[in-house]
Amino acid sequence: MNDIIVRDAGPSDHEAMAEVFRSCHPALLVSAASIAHAAEAFADAGLAEFVAETEGRVVGVVSGWRNVWSTEEGAVAVDIAVRPEFQRRGAGTLLMARIERHLAGLGARVTSANAEDPAGIAFAAAHGFGTGRIARISRCDLADLPPVLAVPEDVRIVRLSEVDDLRALHASDNLAAMDIPTDRPFVPFAFEQWKVKQLGDPRLDHDLSLVAMVGDTFSAMAYLQRVGDRVHSAFTGTHPGFRGRGHATVLKSHALHAARDTGATEAFTANDAKNAPMLKVNTRLGYVPFLERTALRREGVAGS
Description:
CATH architecture of the largest domain: 3-Layer(aba) Sandwich
Structural class: alpha+beta
Domain N-acetyltransferase: 4-152, 153-304
Distance between the termini: 29 Å
Order of helices and strands: EHHEEEHEHEEHHEEEHEHE
Protein name: GNAT superfamily N-acetyltransferase
Keywords: Acyltransferase, Transferase
InterPro entries: Acyl_CoA_acyltransferase (IPR016181), Bact_Acetyltransf (IPR050832), GNAT_dom (IPR000182)
Number of helices: 8
CATH topology of the largest domain: Aminopeptidase
Pfam family, one: Acetyltransf_1
């Protein structure tokens, strides 16, 4: 077995890191630019990234940071990936040992992660993680889109790139996000954080991302990320005062058609596997099940 070393990741590694993530997560949209953005945007969350390398080739990646979406004391998150052909050679164990030291320095008490296959779940279990909620990742072949849905008479569709009052959109976005199924309280971003961490993500396509307006109120939003000819639903939500009217479904339909018309070929979306209403909406829009993502959680001090 060739020697594997673990070292700090740097800007020159970003493309190789993206390739590793893509090799492990077929529905993930990631690029060198998005990794560079995350390194800067989540620096205030203590983000650290390391790579596993053999013979000059990056074969594994790990990152760890304070979980900015959690209210729990000592909440941290970790993301680890090793190219399939290099798994079971010790790279993952070395990466995990290195990130554990960083997480301990952040005061880790609760660690979150995700896995998309039995091998990932088994690796996590060996490091003390238990399984939680399951998300369904669905795929839509944009060549086979159902007809675009009609826009209600009282609704005006606006591109994200055309929104003037971002603070009002942020307020509606936060209200809509409270409907996301979760086992623990969700912490929305403050306005400036939202602008940097979410709107500033280079994957977010501000022309394909759409919002619905009823008068001066943002009733729904459907954000699409794009990398190459693939798109992913970053968030689809509805203002509580407008639920049940189908605004988000209409938006998502129009966003998918716009993506297809600009050359995108496939779309992905993620939903809690028990969220029957949203799964029904996605089926209506042409999505079919693609894979499952299992939430992982470990309580206790990192590395203990």
